[in-house]
Amino acid sequence: MADQQSEQVTEGAPGPALGEGPVEEYGSDGRLKAKYRLKAGRFDGEMITYDDAGGIKERISFVAGRLDGEMAVYENGRLLQRSRYRDGLQEGPAQVFDDDGALREEMNFKGGKLDGPVKLYAHGRLSALCQALARPFTDFYTTEAPFDWYQTC
């Protein structure tokens, strides 16, 4: 079986059209920005994006173009957020960590919707339980704190 060579894409250049196989994206400075696999033109498998220093920024799992599996967001090598997806919808536990790596927020999702209370932590210890607001939750993928989609405890 022949090795499949990675397609290389430079920032600003058109992306692979209905590509198959591994892809590496590079910035105009020549640094690796992302690695992923395409299947029938869709993300399939793990995508890794990199920050300007070359550290991992995100690890995201896809199946047939939809989020499926773990998503983790990093900053300067530190884990900031971790969540799980199934068939494009957030499913299961999601966690947010502070700059020291201690757990700051924890919540659970079912079918893309918040399921149960949001647990807030101070210095790694449970400090409050909050109920979600009635409006729909739209974006776990943010580093701003505190999130504004649950009521103050």
List keywords for this structure.
153 residues; mainly beta; 14-stranded mixed β-sheet; 14 strands; 54% strand
What would you note in describing this structure?
With 153 residues, this protein is mostly beta strands. It contains no helices and 14 strands. The chain has strands at residues 7-10, 21-26, 32-39, 42-43, 45-50, 56-63, 66-75, 78-86, 89-90, 92-97, 103-110, 113-114, 118-122, 125-130. Strands 1, 2, 3, 4, 5, 6, 7, 8, 9, 10, 11, 12, 13 and 14 form a 14-stranded mixed beta sheet that branches. Strand 7 and strand 8 (78-86) form a beta hairpin. The radius of gyration is 18 Å and the shape is flat. Residues 10-15, 134-138 and 141-147 have low confidence and may be disordered.
User: What's the helical proportion of residues?
Assistant: under 10%
Strand content: over 45%
Element string (H = helix, E = strand):
EEEEEEEEEEEEEE
Structural class call reads: mainly beta
Shape: flat
Largest sheet geometry: 14 strands, mixed
Q: Which stretches of 5+ consecutive residues score pLDDT under 50?
A: 10-15, 134-138, 141-147
- Number of helical elements: 0
The separation of the N and C termini measures 59 Å
* Gyration radius, in Å: 18 Å
**Average pLDDT level:** 81
Number of E-state strands:
14
